[in-house]
Write a structure and sequence with these properties.
heterodimer; A: 305 residues; mainly alpha; MetI-like fold; 16 helices; flat; B: MetI-like fold; globular
Chain lengths: 305, 319
């Protein structure tokens, strides 16, 4: 019952605390012992869940003789950066990193701008067709992207946008934009409407209400939504793999698959784990920076990486 | 205690601050850009995929040449072909089993860890939450490659550890020779990646349960299991419905984990509906067959989507 101890008990609960102090003590001690056990369980779970990440990091700095051993080394004899150096000096990796950054940033920015207006509409106004719009947004968010790969590819081809970053950015809006509308809606709806009404009465124009009241208050929401959108776009593989055909135009996810299946790198797990680490890094860094906001708003949009 | 929307997690409750305003043309102006994007990247491809599914599948070479263009209309023949092929039903059966197992495991572990987070000291909770966030941040493509390496037949650490157990001989064991074992490893990747979302959001849900309700149950002599079964679970129900439907949709359409685990060439035994559709439609340029499968896939998921949307409306989140 640590949660109970942390929370200041209000006066309303005084009735329950009136139980005699005598029998409470041994129970508390038993509780404390049980908490110790559960803490140990939690640490074990954390270790098991965290082990794959540890193994990726440790493999990426192992020498190949330390990697290819029948008895795995849980701590390497020698550390090496050659895996990272190999990946970072690969010109294709650099191209693909740049492509991933361009695609992800553009997708996030466009969907935040477009999504913000849509979110404002459904969070603040009543209008005919509002419900239809909401349902459409929710349903679109759920359509598996793989199911639309074929028509997207054909349509972009006829628009001469296949094998261009711009084409991929447009397609990515399909899943980032509805999600942005929905998540931002939650954040805007949590700003009391009385605030904008008061501002309107005080003589603010609609536009002033928007950028003087709502925009500053929804700032954290914009950041959280932006990070989610970043994760979605950064991690996408199917569309990138289908639409981007040149080595120099692909994203890091496609690079990762080719790294693994290429004959020169096939057995190079050190290099592969280094590439995997670098691919995951931008997302992890964003998470560490915005950690508190993200875990608080995790349910708002229900995203999976 | 009625487990209705009165005290749901903050993100799921609706701030009641007067009714929505009528804004004349303003709301329509606001949604116009979003509508244009939706029309461009969703409606148009959806129409196109339906049209493709109604057109004749010619030999893949010709389809590639004419870019899947305008082949004669054949009505529902592609659907009849798909639904009468044995491969389709094998793939569908595999997909359904895979989805059921993955969703069930995700839910069980997600709920268990959420309850655990609620039970431990603060420092332990901080450590476990940090690990969960890291796990969540790892892209599915990356995690799949980590697991491929963990389960490597020659130098994989999993075989080494299992081999240490008495009576178990796993040295050199190839997990991917048999698709059932391979899909079990892939299940591990999927569940591992899905646990954080469930554990963290369900934990947030549990902390919203009023303490006096739990206290009352304890005074009435309810044990840990009874409290969980009769108070915690009903309270979490709306959130659980949403998380379950989302998990079903995601696991039904699973792609990255299988595709990467098999180096971009999944063998027939590894094909779930999403993979089958992609390798038919994109890899072999059988656009019309692929489009037919895509339409079937969307139709199958539509039912789950309806449950999801209805639940969101029910708890007032979509009002």
């Amino acid at each position: 019952m640590t949660a109970l101890k942390e929370q200041p008990t209000s006066g309303a609960t005084s009735g329950t605390t009136s139980s005699p102090a005598g029998p409470r003590r041994p129970r508390n001690r038993r509780k404390a012992a049980a908490t110790g056990t559960w803490n140990a369980v939690a640490l074990f779970v954390a270790a098991v869940l965290g082990f794959p990440i540890f193994w990726m990091l440790i493999t990426s700095v192992k020498t190949s003789s330390d990697i290819n051993r029948l008895v795995p080394l849980f701590w390497p004899h020698h550390f090496t950066w050659s895996g990272f150096a190999g990946v970072l000096t690969d010109p294709i990796f650099r191209d693909d990193l740049l492509n991933s950054l361009v695609i992800t940033l553009s997708t996030v920015l466009i969907s935040i701008v477009v999504g913000f207006f849509g979110a404002m509409a459904i969070a603040r106004f009543r209008f005919a067709g509002r419900k239809v719009f909401i349902v459409a947004v929710l349903i679109v968010q759920m359509i598996p992207l793989t199911a639309l790969t074929i028509p997207m590819s054909l349509l972009l081809d006829s628009a001469h946008l296949k094998n261009t970053l711009f084409g991929v950015i447009i397609v990515y809006l399909m899943f980032t934009m509805p999600f942005t509308v929905w998540t931002l809606r939650t954040f805007i709806a949590n700003i009391p409407r009385e605030l904008d009404e008061a501002a309107l009465i005080d003589g603010c124009t609609r536009w002033q209400v928007f950028y003087k009241i709502i925009l500053p208050l929804v700032g954290p929401g914009l950041v959280a939504t932006g990070v989610y959108g970043w994760v979605l776009a950064w991690n996408e593989f199917v569309i990138a793999n289908t639409l981007l055909l040149d080595n120099t135009k692909q994203t890091l996810m496609v690079y990762l698959l080719q790294f693994q299946s290429s004959p020169t790198h096939g057995a190079d797990y050190g290099g592969l784990m280094a590439a995997a680490t670098l691919t995951a890094l931008p997302v992890v860094v964003l998470f560490v920076i915005f950690q508190s906001r993200i875990s608080a708003g995790l349910t708002a949009g229900a995203v999976k990486g | 205690m009625t487990a209705t929307g009165s005290s749901l997690p903050p993100t799921l409750t609706r701030r009641r601050g007067g009714s929505l305003r009528r804004g004349g043309n303003v709301p329509y102006l606001l949604i116009t850009p979003a509508l244009i994007v939706l029309a461009l990247v969703v409606v148009w491809p959806l129409v196109k995929v339906i049209l493709l599914s109604l057109q004749e599948q010619q030999s893949s070479k010709r389809a590639l040449f004419s870019n899947g263009g305008t082949t004669p209309w054949v009505g529902l023949r592609n659907f009849v072909d798909a639904l009468t092929s044995r491969t389709f039903w094998t793939v569908l059966e595999r997909t359904l089993i895979f989805t059921a197992v993955n969703v069930a495991l995700t839910l069980v572990f997600g709920i268990a860890i959420a309850v655990l987070l609620n039970r431990v000291s603060k420092w332990a909770r901080v450590i476990l939450t940090a690990v969960l966030l890291f796990v969540w941040a790892v892209p599915a493509t990356v995690s799949t490659q980590i697991y491929a390496w963990l389960f490597n037949n020659q130098f994989g650490v999993v075989n080494y550890v299992l081999d240490k157990l008495p009576g178990v001989h796993m040295q050199g064991h190839d997990w991917f020779a048999d698709p059932t074992q391979g899909l079990a490893v892939i299940t591990l990747v999927v569940v591992w990646g899905a646990i954080p979302l469930l554990a963290i959001s369900l934990h947030a849900g549990i902390t919203q349960i009023p303490q006096d309700v739990l206290e009352a149950a304890r005074c009435d002599g309810a044990g840990a299991w009874a409290t969980f079964r009769h108070i915690v679970l009903p309270f979490l129900r709306p959130l659980l419905v949403i998380l379950t439907t989302l998990s079903v949709i995601w696991d039904f359409g699973v792609f990255h984990q299988i595709w990467f685990m098999r180096n971009g060439h999944p063998e027939p035994g590894y094909q779930t509906l999403g993979i089958f559709m992609y390798s038919q439609g994109v890899s072999s340029s059988r656009y019309n067959t692929g489009a037919t499968l895509a339409v079937l896939m969307i139709l199958a998921l539509l039912l789950v989507m309806v449950v999801y949307v209805r639940q969101l409306f029910k708890i007032g989140d979509a009002e």
